[in-house]
């Protein structure tokens, strides 16, 4: 490959909070390995909510990282927690759009047969790429880790930006066939021809830990307590554990669960006030722990120690599969998925051994799924019996697909 690549991405090391950055790093790594000169255009570190050196080693030394000045409106431009709405359009990092476009134009002028690649979330990355591609006529690949527009939830601005990105980009990448179908329905069947599916997948760290776990599991052979881990964010009604808390409380009150039988850990979650209040009212402190965010490498080691995994995915996200799911799958442990069985996540996990699927809002179904999962772990505490092939979910394969897409532009 002889094309230079400009990657526009908010999520890039050393940001701590996002699993999405590992997808972008894998793309940068594979494009560089294929012979491209890769430059990443991202935001200055002061705008990042938290930083960590974890992940920096995965960025190849040949990849150039350029940072455009920007602020986080909610932290830097708010007075007593309030700020003008236009300062967060299309998102709270909108201040980096003009600096990034200015820098991006200069970078593109010095590149050989350049291609722009941008990734959402966050939406301002696509806005930057849209302006750069329009001004320079450089081919553009728009990556949607999630659909940008959710009817009834997102603004007209995001609706228009998604439509512009899908229609004007030379190629569009999504993470699930359901999102491809969604875009085809929204923007016409002709769009389908330029939409490719590259799943989120799992990366190098997970691959290495999973290989080690297959030989010598880290989880305790005597599951007392059984460690059920949710790794990642919990927010709003979209990933709401309230019904799960009710289910656990009812199982405890019925004598089916006792202190020491199970520990449900939410790593890196911030519960909404109403959900935190529900947890306290149900007196689940001895069964449920909410712990602060950890660096990605530490989170993966914690996954290795867990007996089983917990997933929350509301039906509003039926077209999407969280990146965390692929890490769960790679580790070959039982999964309790509180999601819609007919959504993309439910359909994926239906074919994965030892997965229990229950409606996120149905406490009765959750109780049945949780008890079935507990029985699975008791029968095979270290998951020695789970030997299914997971190589098709490796992020490297998806990154190679992106190389093919760029080569065709």
Structure, explained:
By secondary structure, the chain is an alpha/beta fold. Helices cover 38% and strands 16% of the residues. The protein is built from 14 helices and 13 strands. Strands 3-2-1-4-5-6-7 form a 7-stranded parallel β-sheet, sandwiched between helices. β11 (308-313), α11 (323-331) and β12 form a beta-alpha-beta unit. α1 (20-33) crosses α14, α3 (97-109) packs across α4 (123-136) and α8 (242-253) crosses α13. The longest helix has 17 residues, at 363-379. The radius of gyration is 22 Å and the shape is globular.
What layout of secondary structure does this protein have?
Blueprint: E1 5-8, H1 20-33, E2 38-43, E3 64-68, H2 73-76, H3 97-109, E4 115-120, H4 123-136, E5 140-144, H5 156-168, E6 171-174, H6 177-187, E7 195-197, H7 204-215, E8 226-231, H8 242-253, E9 262-267, H9 273-281, E10 288-291, H10 296-305, E11 308-313, H11 323-331, E12 335-339, H12 344-349, E13 355-358, H13 363-379, H14 395-407
Parallel strand pairs: 1-2, 1-4, 2-3, 4-5, 5-6, 6-7, 8-9, 8-11, 9-10, 11-12, 12-13
Helix pairs in contact: 1-14, 3-4, 4-5, 7-10, 8-13
């Amino acid at each position: 490959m002889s094309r230079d690549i400009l990657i526009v991405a908010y999520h890039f090391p050393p940001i701590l909070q996002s699993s999405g950055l590992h997808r972008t790093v894998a793309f940068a790594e594979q494009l560089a390995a294929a012979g491209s000169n890769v430059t990443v255009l991202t935001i200055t570190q002061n705008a990042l909510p938290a930083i960590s050196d974890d992940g920096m080693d995965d960025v190849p030394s040949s990849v150039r990282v350029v940072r455009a000045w920007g602020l986080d409106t909610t932290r830097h431009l708010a007075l007593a927690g309030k700020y003008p709405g236009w300062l967060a359009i299309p998102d709270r990092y909108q201040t980096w759009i003009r600096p990034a476009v200015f820098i991006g134009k200069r970078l593109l002028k010095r590149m050989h047969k350049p291609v722009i690649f941008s990734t959402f979330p966050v939406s301002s990355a696509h806005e930057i790429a849209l302006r750069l591609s329009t001004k320079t006529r450089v081919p553009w690949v728009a990556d949607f880790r999630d659909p940008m527009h959710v009817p009834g939830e997102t603004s007209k601005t995001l609706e228009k930006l998604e439509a512009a990105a899908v229609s004007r980009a030379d190629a569009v990448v999504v993470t699930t066939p359901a999102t491809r179908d969604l875009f085809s329905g929204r923007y016409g069947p002709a769009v389908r021809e330029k939409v490719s599916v590259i799943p989120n997948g799992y990366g190098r760290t997970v691959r290495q830990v999973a290989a080690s776990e297959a030989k010598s599991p880290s989880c305790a052979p005597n599951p007392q307590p059984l460690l059920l881990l949710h790794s990642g964010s919990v927010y709003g009604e979209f990933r709401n554990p309230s019904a799960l808390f009710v289910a656990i409380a009812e199982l405890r009150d019925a004598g089916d669960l006792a202190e020491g039988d199970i520990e449900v850990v939410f790593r890196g979650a911030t519960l909404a006030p109403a959900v935190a209040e529900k947890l306290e009212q149900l007196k689940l402190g001895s069964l449920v722990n909410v712990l602060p965010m950890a660096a990605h490498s530490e989170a993966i080691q914690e996954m290795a120690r867990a007996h089983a995994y917990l997933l929350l995915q509301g039906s509003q996200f039926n077209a999407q599969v969280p990146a965390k799911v692929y890490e769960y799958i790679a580790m070959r442990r039982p999964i309790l998925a509180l999601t819609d069985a007919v959504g993309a996540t439910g359909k994926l996990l239906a074919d994965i051994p030892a997965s229990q699927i229950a409606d996120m809002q149905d406490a009765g179904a959750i109780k049945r799924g949780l008890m079935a999962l507990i029985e699975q772990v008791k029968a095979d505490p270290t998951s020695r019996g789970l030997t299914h092939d997971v190589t098709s979910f490796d992020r490297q394969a998806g990154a190679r697909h992106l190389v093919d897409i760029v080569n065709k532009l």
